[in-house]
Amino acid sequence: MTTFLKLPRKAGIPWIVAESQYSLDHSVLGEIGACFWAFPDQITSIIEHHHDPEPSLSPQGMVAFANQIKHYLQDQKTLVDQGILESYNKFLGIDYQAYDRFLSSKFARRQESA
Asked: Source organism's superkingdom (predicted)?
């Protein structure tokens, strides 16, 4: 396990490549870690299911949505699951222009404080 956790950084490869090489994904590793550290069942479940595609306002749903927004806003397009993001956009009534407005306002605030 230690080798897997260090591989992406040491080898300079993306996590997604390391995950496919070891046939594991970070949801499974997170669940294992949460169990190992005796996290509450609800937290373990949130970690395990943070890529579930069904939109909801549950803690798991909000973490799944936040995870997709993070990838989108950080321009990590290869990590965005378009199906999940679009289903949440529809569920919550959000469009991609809202993300662009958020980025613009965030950038403007950084410029003002510099």
From this structure: Bacteria
Q: Contacts from 16-21 at CB under 8 Å and sequence distance 24+?
A: 16/78, 16/79
Count of other CB atoms within 10 angstroms of residue 15: 14
One DSSP character per residue, 4-31 reads: HHHHHHHHT--HHHHHHHHT--HHHHHH
Report pLDDT digits (tens) over 35-90: 989 998 988 888 888 877 678 888 888 888 998 988 888 888 888 888 888 999 99
Instruction: Check pLDDT > 80 for residue 23.
Output: no
Q: What is the pTM of this model?
A: 0.65
Q: Where are the domains of the chain?
A: 1-48, 49-114
